[in-house]
Amino acid sequence: QVQLVESGGGLVQAGGSLRLSCAASGIGFTFSRYQLSWYRSAPGKQRELVASSITTGRTNYAESVKGRFTISRDNDEKIVVLQMNSLRVGDTGVYYCNASLLTDNIWGQGTQVTVSS
User: Which of 22, 46, 53, 104 is the most exposed place for a label (fewest CB within 10 A)?
Assistant: First the structure.
């Protein structure tokens, strides 16, 4: 069974940094073919895409995080990392890891990120 497990969330002051990791299990050698993404949800807001790592090596970012967040992946270790710098109060939310390939759409359980002013 394919599983994604996030870690690295927590409480940080505005301007600080956090590093989120997502480890995959049960995917096997096809991990490199998956598009890997981080989403976040906040109270009263829809879940939004934060960053994606596409199999071609391209990355995409929400406008609000460009220049501050970096997504990276290690296909051998089967992990995807979101490095978050210059955090803002508006970055507060639950961050979810997602892996998608054809009909597979897998979510992690989420990790809370809270940025205080």
Answer: 46
